Amino acid sequence: MIGGGAVAEQKVLGLLAAGAHVTVVSPETTPRLADLAAAGEIDLRRRPYRSGDLAGARLAIAGPTMARPMPQYGPRPSERACS
Known about the structure:
Layout: H1 6-17, E1 23-25, H2 31-38, E2 43-45, H3 77-80
Parallel strand pairs: 1-2
């Protein structure tokens, strides 16, 4: 999951319910995502997305803020995932 807001939280909860191993990449997260990370239920990388973060992933989901260019988050994952 690229992003740590409310939309990401809901998607992460659904993925966990389905038995997925979830990694969240985001400089900021909701309190619930932070709690899940503290409990070891998700992996959390508290930083902007970097090229290579999707290596080995079977599914990548980018939160709504990643749908448009935002320099503080780096390149959009969709621009790098297929290169």
